[in-house]
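From the shared-data thread, chain only:
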Amino acid sequence: MLTAEERRALEEIRRRRRRAKYQAIGFVAVCIVGGIPMNGRPIAMIPIALIAILIASGFFYNASVIQLVRLFRARCPRCANRFFGRQRGSRYAFGRTLWASRCLNCGLSFDDLSTAEAAPAISKSEA
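Structure, as tokens:
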């Protein structure tokens, strides 16, 4: 069972992860749009469009890098180690992944949020 503090911290990690993914997708989308041909040449070859594409892609790139750094530094609310990285001194000390849905050290999972949210609804209906 999750405590209120663990739930809040885990929701924050999940929100940061989702935000980082959307910003990375936004960067890729802006780059793809810049390559769409218009009148026989890419949109990025039009000077005003190039400026807009550079500003938008710079924004998305910087925002996603900042989010990724914050995400890699996120601490697990249960064990206080890095959520997406292995504990130092372990066999896989350099193992990091943003695809993990659970803490790589203690196993606290995002699935625990949905289980904990469903549990009070069941107990209220039984009462």
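The chain has one domain: 4-126.
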